[in-house]
Amino acid sequence: MPKRPALALLLLALPLPALAQAGGAPHASHAAPGPNGGRIAEAGRTHVELVARGAALELFLTGADAVAPVPADGFRATAILVVDGRPARIALVPAGGNRLSGTAPLSLPPRPRGAVQLTGPDGATASARFD
């Protein structure tokens, strides 16, 4: 009989780490489109909005609130996106304001899938996923 209460406690405790992690972890992406029509994801303390138009790729930087623009000076990024079933690496460099920009070797879909690695002026890196 003592084994059943222990088993019940074990079964009740299993979901707790998952709940704690879900509550404490930042949101990886946002469902609503950003102000530039792209998808928003978190990259460390910075929110990034990924916008693809043809072969042009833009990454807009905002603060932790996903509203206040963060100047792109000193930042750089590499996007690794799936294009025609193969990975494509796209270098993104400051292009004025809070925008980084680059050009893909092929035309991109409007909602490309992949990841972006962002390097800040201090050399710290963070990444964002776009599924």
CATH topology: Immunoglobulin-like
Low-confidence stretches: 4-27
H/E element order: HHEEEEEEEE
Overall number of structural domains: 1
Helix-strand blueprint:
Blueprint: H1 3-13, H2 15-24, E1 39-43, E2 46-53, E3 56-62, E4 76-83, E5 86-94, E6 99-103, E7 114-119, E8 125-130
Antiparallel strand pairs: 1-2, 2-3, 3-6, 4-5, 4-7, 5-6, 7-8
Keywords: Signal
Signal peptide: 1-20
Region (Disordered): 98-131
Give your account of this protein's structure.
16% of the residues lie in helices and 41% in strands. The chain is of the alpha+beta class and 131 residues long. The protein has a single domain (27-130), classed as Immunoglobulin-like, CATH 2.60.40. It has an 8-stranded antiparallel sheet with strand order 1-2-3-6-5-4-7-8, with no helix packed on it. Strand 2 and strand 3 form a beta hairpin. Mean pLDDT is 83; it is low at 4-27. Keywords: Signal. Residues 1-20 form the signal peptide. Residues 98-131 are annotated as: Disordered.
Descriptive terms for the model:
131 residues; alpha+beta; eight-stranded antiparallel sheet; 41% strand; globular
Short description:
The protein is α+β, with helices and mostly antiparallel strands.
